[in-house]
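Bug #77: duplicate submission created two jobs. Keeping one. Sequence:
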Amino acid sequence: MLKILVTSTYILSLIYGLHGADVVLSCSLIEEGGGMGGMMGGAMFQRTPSTLVFRDLVGNDGLSPELVTPYNPPETPSADDLIFELMLPSIQIPDADSLLHSDCNEQNIACEISRYVPRGADPDSLPAHFIGSVQLEGAGLSLTLVLQTSSIETADPPLMQSKLNLALSTTGTLLTEVVFVVFSRVPSIVAPIGGDALLDCGFRQKDSTPGQDVALEWRLQHRGNGRKVLDLKAREMESEVGSDVLVEREDTSAEADLLVRDGNASLSLRRLKVSDEGTYICTVGSGEFQTQQVVQLHITQPPHVTLSEEKLKFQDNSPKKLGCECQRYYPLDVTVEWLSQRPSDEEPVSFTKESSLSSHRQHSDGTYSLSSYLTLRPDEHPPDTVVTCRVFHSTSDIPTEVTLTVEKPEPEMAFWTIVLMLVISVVFLYQAFKGTES
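Kept job's structure:
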């Protein structure tokens, strides 16, 4: 099995050509070999430097020649060199300009290529096919490309690539074209519970037979479990698009018209639940080609934070236990801090170490709740002290805070005031009793 893997350190070049800009990636050819295997029993791999060249990826309008580094093939072609040259634009790749700007944005590109056999084809037949995966880091553009070797002018006798045993061009490259691509422009999505999400997926095909079926399947994988979400088969007829659709989840849809006519394979999910979170696999099959894209869906819900008391007074100098309730949040990661700022303090003082936490409570909808408790003492928290519960959660970069201010206790009545009130009460009762006798 052969693979081309773009290393985490890559070379990105822009070539100011006659038709458009090119992208050049520094790669490694990986072959499965013999040997004792890895630590877990996996096969050993041999790595050979290689290059992946996208020709005329996008138009060069607006590109400055000063920012362009031209790609030059080897002066002397070698059978050991492995240069995949992709002739574009045989298929227009959506948002391809993001690959051009990745170097300026300090984004890595992950990429790998392996052998591919179309449905019904002989594995050893020509033209040869490869499947390539290109992913821009940071949830950027993700591509799965089917590459087909092209008829080329070769030397006589032709120079054969030593690893693949395929004829190289006169410049020493393996000339290919993109004949099928499945892509996602948003391969990672964050959406709230109860909200809606559109999982972006699409495809392009160089040549297709009028009226041929297009098959679309969406599957969900999460924590080792998998299930089908939608299965759609569509075909364009004379005046309409026919389709067969099987939906395994309510409030789920894909558009057959858009799939066939625009290559739009996106999935719409409404009324999201925690159980909808996971890795969605979009598989598109058309004609002899079938491949897929992966879209991650992350479900979130911020915590609702409240304090157990609205007012706080130390009436008898006894400690008070204050609770901070964090309710109905997702995902699980939450952090609670306690702060106290007396009138004489310039900055709040942390009391987090003195606090305690309950265990996480999971509700039937998959959300969680947690309580944190802090015992407050009058000597540490005098009147006008501001007590704050601060909660951090992955749904926001800004923590949620709830506060209360320690109030002054009710003034105690002096001893003689109490005695006087008792005397007045006794006199009043005596007069009242005497009046009833008369």
